[in-house]
Specification:
- With 68 residues, this protein is mainly α.
- Helix content is 62%, strand content 0%.
- It contains four helices and no strands.
- Helix 1 crosses helix 4 (38-50).
Length: 68
């Protein structure tokens, strides 16, 4: 995995994209997912990206939409 992809995955995890959180919970279970640190979640997401798990193509950096 190249450095740009690693940094991008880190930003996706830190932005708390709902799809990523859902996939981590589905893969590891709710109890384990709640105890995982950011480092563990990032490592798990990198592994999911390398394994081409269905749903990773929907990941993007999540931005909150502010209503005026």
């Amino acid at each position: 995995m190249n450095q740009r992809r690693s940094k991008w995955i880190r930003k996706v995890v830190i932005s708390r994209h709902p799809k990523v959180l859902e996939m981590v919970t589905e893969r590891f279970g709710k109890e384990k997912a709640e105890q995982m640190t950011y480092k563990q979640v990032i490592k798990a997401c990198k592994k999911m990206w390398e394994d081409k798990v269905p749903g990773v193509e929907q990941w993007k950096i999540h931005e909150k939409v502010e209503e005026n």
